[in-house]
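Course exercise 7: structure representation. Students receive a sequence record and must write out the corresponding structure in token form. The form below is the worked example handed out in class, using Multisubunit sodium/proton antiporter, MrpD subunit (483 residues). Read each field label carefully; the graders check that inputs and outputs are placed in the correct fields and that the protein name is recorded exactly as given.

STUDENT ID: A-19
EXERCISE PROTEIN: Multisubunit sodium/proton antiporter, MrpD subunit
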Amino acid sequence: MKNFLILIPIFFPQIAALIMGIIKFKSDKNRNIYISTVVMLNLFFIIGILISNNLREIHLIKINSFLDIYFKIDRLGILFVLLASILWIFTTFYSFVYMTHEGNEKRFFIYFMLTLGVTVGIAFSGNLFTLYLYYEFLTLATFPLVIHSGSKEALRVGKKYLIYSFSGATLALLGIILIFSISNNLNFVENGVLQNISIDNPKLLLTIYMVMFIGFGVKAALVPLHSWLPAAMVAPTPVSSLLHAVAVVKSGIFALIRISYFIFGSDVLKKIHGNYYISILVILTILMGSLLALHQDNLKKRLAYSTVSQLGYILLGIVLLNQNSLTGSLLHLVNHAVIKITLFFCVGAIYFKTGKKYIHEIRGIGKEMPITMWCFTISSISLIGIPPTNGFVSKWYLALGGLGENKAVFVIILLLSALLTAGYLLPIVITAFFPGEEKNIVKKEPDLSMLIPIVLLTIIVVFLGLFPNVVLHFIQSIVRNIV
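STUDENT ANSWER:
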């Protein structure tokens, strides 16, 4: 009976969202108290479950060995669920002020909380079927957030989002069915369910892996299936933050780690050369994302293409199949999430206070919004990978992973991409802080409800750079067991 407690952080925010649809709040303040209580309580529930070591798995509905809704808590799931839940709290408080000028706040927060429950479900999925189920729910829960404004452009982008997401999920489902036909087991097992199965047809396994990687890779913005992500910038900034930092793209990354190390296993992937062909797409993802970002004048779109490139770093760590590379990959999953959500919050604050969306419009804004722009600058330096920031630490391990496989070309690509990252982020900082002429400066910092999350997240960025062992040791304990 105790194992049913695992379900609380999955269903609690979803039930709370449905109840919110019925309740008529007397004021926005009461509504905000309700939402913040739900989101923070959910984190406490998760922590309580993690402290109780005996609460580890539950089969919610099991019809047969394929149709089995199964939840299991392991270290990888813990890393992902804590990252998502903590950043969700920051986004909640930021959204209270930001969404006042977007309208339809109640509807926004209903789907916002639904998405939280679905993301926890992905983190706690114990097998491929459950992961796939919640992966599909994630598309449905985030779709209303993407089309929030209801404009023609938003509806067009929403259609594109659905087409890409469901097409990728269809490929993933095909792979799941084929894997089940070979292994008769979809449970996530360290070193993979295929480790003790003789490989009679390595080409078939390679095909299945590529089909699944591309299928789940759609949400991870794998080039050439990435265009839905920049298009989704039509959504409000808090949604963009969640899409790029936590919920959608990181769920795609999480799924790819699951299939690579908990279904196939690194030994099997090396035998079938599964990483070789995928690495070509990964290199394209890193370089194309950076090159496309250079040409964007729209602030959010520049950050969107940046996300495509940075996700390529994480994918590179996955396919190199060694301990250093996967350590760097998981570190960058965490670091990129914190950095990118900070950058989006800063850009959102600029738009909220000034209505400016384009880089050429923000000349001198560093004097008007110094705290916001300094936070943007620190986060930009971290994303470039300049020491002693957290971005440097994760890229260091990725470089070690490349050298460990005797592939110096990957290190060169990382360095080149770092230069390109500087090329598309530093001009924003220079434009903001070095105007051609002094004007009458009027302070335009956002309200504290928006500014405090930005400042706290920036402090976390710096802290994780100075003290990476806080996360690093836990990540290394995950990696030692699966590579």
